[in-house]
């Protein structure tokens, strides 16, 4: 399993970010290899993100090539390059 953390600045209001996230959630739910996704709001103004749990590196690679992934910057009106960290998960606390 892999953990992926994305942090980005959006020019949208928090209300609009939430609306976009809710509208796009069914597309993410349809990805079987995406075990979980958490939508994040950081303490800094207009900074949001996502925390993803992928079942494999192959699944993450396939997602990165998808139309869904390509449309994230425009959908959230991301300013600048997002910060992305990917790390292997050693083990979960809970099964």
Bin the strand percentage. 35-45%
Shape: globular
Could you state the order of secondary-structure elements as H and E?
A: EHEEHHHE
Q: Alpha-carbon distance between the termini?
A: 13 Å
Continuous helix count: 4
Number of domains: 1
Question: Helix/strand-derived class?
Answer: alpha+beta
Q: Helix amount, in percent?
A: 25-40%
The number of E-state strands comes to: 4
Mean pLDDT: 96
Question: Can you tag this structure with a few keywords?
Answer:
95 residues, alpha+beta, Alpha-Beta Plaits, four-stranded antiparallel beta sheet, 4 helices, 4 strands, 38% strand, globular
How would you briefly describe this protein structure?
This protein is of the alpha+beta class and 95 residues long. It has a 4-stranded antiparallel beta sheet with strand order 2-3-1-4. It has 4 helices and 4 strands; from the N terminus they run E-H-E-E-H-H-H-E.
Characterise this structure.
There is one protein chain. The protein has one domain: Alpha-Beta Plaits (2-Layer Sandwich). 34% of the residues lie in helices and 38% in strands. Strands 2-3-1-4 form a four-stranded antiparallel β-sheet. The chain starts with a strand and ends in a 7-residue tail after the last strand. The model has no long low-confidence stretch (mean pLDDT 96).
